[in-house]
Design a protein that fits this description.
Blueprint lengths: L1 H17 L9 E3 L6 E2 H27 L6 H15 L1 H10 L1 H21 L7 E10 L10 H19 L4 H8 L10 E6 L5 H7 L11 E3 L2 E10 L8 H14 L4 H13 L20
Antiparallel strand pairs: 1-2, 3-4, 3-6, 5-6
Helix pairs in contact: 1-2, 2-5, 3-4, 3-5, 4-5, 5-10, 6-7
């Protein structure tokens, strides 16, 4: 978020200067004994240092605004969400840059998310929603567990499994036994796509149907019992809110950012963007493969 704040702060400066192009570019901003700094020098320096990144972002926001809408209600909800998540850090950004500026930043991000979600294709079997119970070996999963640690974890997961086998609810057993942070939510891990979990966990989770519970699964973290609570079966018949929830989870699992970039590239192509400044003539050209 800090990078975006810095970039857009610079963008505001560049826009402010470029809006005065009809004015005298030689207008002096700062006088010194060693020489003056003019408006043109400042503009060129900002353009050289961050111009391409800022200009791209401005174009993306412009073309996406023509296709997508972020309502005041959506923006208010996102603002409150970020404030709750970041606390004092968010408040400091607002104090430094102003609430209107931060809301515009959030709006830009939300427009990009809406475009990216349109590019997400949901295929059956590539994403599930699951809960788990974890009996961990230790607080440091990178270290090889001792036999004593493994034995203690195995005893704990066996007790949890016995509770499940006796008919107790999964979420109640997770709250009682799980060593994972998800325990307070009944072990709920939310939706996740392939590649997000360790191989042993993923293999077990994606072999289960909705409502099915795994046997005990061992990973580097400890012993797990996994419950698949939802799948993408019947996706087309789901309510829009549920579809969006699944698409967002898939988008978050795209660590490369390829989905978002595809959406942005398509938006620029469809808007028939023409870059007039020769310094930025290759702004939207794909880099050549080496």
């Amino acid at each position: 978020m800090k990078k975006s704040i810095i970039a857009l702060t610079a963008a505001v400066g560049i826009l402010g200067l470029s809006a005065c192009n009809n004015a005298d570019d030689s207008a002096v901003l700062v006088e010194t004994k060693a020489g003056n700094v003019t408006k043109e020098e400042l503009y060129n320096a900002m353009k050289d240092q961050a111009g391409a990144v800022i200009l791209k972002d401005l174009v993306y926001t412009k073309v996406l605004s023509d296709k997508y809408e972020v309502t005041d209600k959506e923006l208010d909800a996102k603002y409150d969400e970020m404030q709750a998540a970041l606390g004092a850090q968010f408040d400091a950004v607002v104090e430094q840059n102003g609430e209107d500026f931060v809301r515009e930043l959030l709006k830009s991000d939300m427009l990009k998310e809406k475009a990216a979600l349109d590019e997400v294709e949901v295929k059956e079997g590539e994403i599930v929603k699951a809960s788990h119970i974890l009996a961990k070996f230790s607080d440091n999963p990178s270290e090889e567990p001792t036999e004593e640690q493994k034995a203690a974890a195995k005893k704990k997961i066996d007790e949890a499994k016995a509770k499940l086998d006796s008919g107790e609810k999964f979420e109640d057993v997770a709250k009682e036994f799980s060593d994972d942070g998800s325990a307070q939510n009944g072990g709920d891990l939310g939706w996740f796509g392939k590649g997000r979990m360790v191989p042993e966990f993923e293999e077990a989770a994606f072999s289960l149907g909705k409502g099915e519970t795994s046997e005990i699964v061992e990973s580097q973290f400890g012993y797990h019992i996994i419950l698949v609570t939802e799948t993408t079966e019947g996706f087309e018949d789901m309510e829009q809110e549920k579809k969006d929830e699944i698409r967002k989870a898939l988008l978050q699992s795209d660590q490369t950012g390829a989905t978002l970039q595809k959406a942005l590239d398509n938006a620029v192509k469809n808007a028939d963007v023409k870059v007039k400044d020769k310094d930025f003539k290759d702004l939207f050209e794909a880099p050549s493969a080496e």
